[in-house]
Design a protein that fits this description.
Layout (H helix, E strand, L loop, with lengths): L2 H35 L6 E4 L5 H12 L3 E6 L5 H12 L5 E5 L5 H15 L2 E6 L14 H25 E10 L12 H7 L1 H13 L5 E7 L5 H4 L4 H9 L9 H12 L10 E4 L7
Parallel strand pairs: 1-2, 1-4, 2-3, 4-5, 5-6, 6-7
The structure holds NADP nicotinamide-adenine-dinucleotide phosphate.
NADP nicotinamide-adenine-dinucleotide phosphate (NAP) binds next to helix 2, helix 5 and helix 8.
């Protein structure tokens, strides 16, 4: 090999190094890009009550952010809708698993967490979305009606938080669904609001218990949202009244709620803990 050959081969080695360095930089940049566009890559989320409406939208949003999602639904008759949620999650390039059952029963809540662990190896994000509502004066509530609301709005939340407290991995996110009624008062919603009241308390207190594991516990409290859950309780007149209470004179829509849930699930919300975020277009404030 001549001196010139050495020079050439050194140059090609350097060029090779340059290409490798460039490739490395590109890979790092791609990785950084993926972290920005898929901040929940490698995370596993559970969303309860996800056959449609808000639960479905939350599932798809978390999938879009990179998480694999356990899609919970309540009743066998609605399996087709839950499967559609799964399809939409998978369309985001995420994995999905289904779990069914009445979450007022502790064993079904355990099964929901086990579905996450068996399919995806753990749980990082829990979105306690399932809930039930009946609008009628307290004096007219039967024992069965009270039990139906208490079972899902209150007891199921306890069961889920108990599982979450030991199963959610360090740095995880627990997000609970409250209601803006907790910041106000409205006739006919005493039992709905009363059974949802623990959401705020459990959130505040559990945040302290799980904080050392860098797990955050927050809740969000929507005002009236344009889903059948709200409309089935209301008349045209009372709907118009509720809409006028917001600063934009309208009901909330699911897309108003999504950015807050996305934020609470994201790494960037680490310093938000034990809070209830009111999402209601200024309908009620606390
Ligand atoms: N829409 C609003 O105006 C509004 C406002 C504030 C807060 N929220 C809260 O937002 C959440 C989602 O509401 P949404 O409007 O999206 O209505 P939704 O689709 O009816 O969501 C409620 C979900 O919870 C499930 N569920 C009810 N009882 C259950 C039980 N015992 N076990 C397991 N799952 C059960 C329902 O399943 P089935 O339908 O099959 O029973 C349904 O999928 C609820 O927690 C609600 O309290 C809603």
């Amino acid at each position: 090999m001549t001196t010139n050959d050495h020079a050439i081969s050194r140059r090609s080695a350097l060029t090779g190094l340059g290409v490798a360095a460039l490739a490395g930089a590109a890979a790092t940049q791609a990785q950084a890009q993926a972290t920005v566009t898929k901040p929940l890559a490698g995370k596993v989320a559970i969303v309860s009550g996800a056959r449609n409406n808000m639960g479905r939208a939350f599932s798809v949003k978390l999938a879009e952010m990179g998480a694999d999602v356990v899609v919970h639904y309540h009743r066998a008759e609605t399996r087709d809708q839950a499967e559609e949620t799964v399809r939409l999650v998978e369309a985001q390039g995420a994995r999905a698993a289904l779990t069914m059952g009445d979450l007022g029963q502790a064993e079904n809540v355990r099964a929901m967490y086990e579905t996450a662990e068996l399919n995806f190896g753990g749980v990082d994000i829990v979105l306690n979305n399932a809930g039930a509502i009946i609008k009628k004066p307290l004096a007219e509530f039967t024992d069965d009606e009270f039990e139906r609301l208490d079972a899902i709005n209150n007891r199921a939340l306890f069961y889920s938080l108990r599982e979450a407290a030991t199963r959610v991995r360090d740095g995880g996110r627990i997000i609970n669904t409250g209601t803006s009624l907790l910041a106000g008062a409205a006739p006919g919603y005493t039992i709905y609001s009363g059974t949802k009241a623990p959401v705020e308390e459990y959130t505040r207190m559990l945040a302290k218990e799980l904080g050392p594991k860098r797990i955050t516990v927050n809740s969000f409290a929507p005002g009236p949202v344009d889903t059948p859950f709200f409309h089935d309780q209301e008349t045209e007149q009372s709907t118009a009244f509720a809409a006028r209470l917001s600063t934009e004179q309208r009901l909330g829509v699911i897309n108003d709620i999504l950015p807050i849930v996305a934020f609470l699930a994201s790494p960037g919300s680490q310093w938000v803990n034990g809070q209830t975020v009111w999402i209601n277009g200024g309908y009620l404030t606390r």
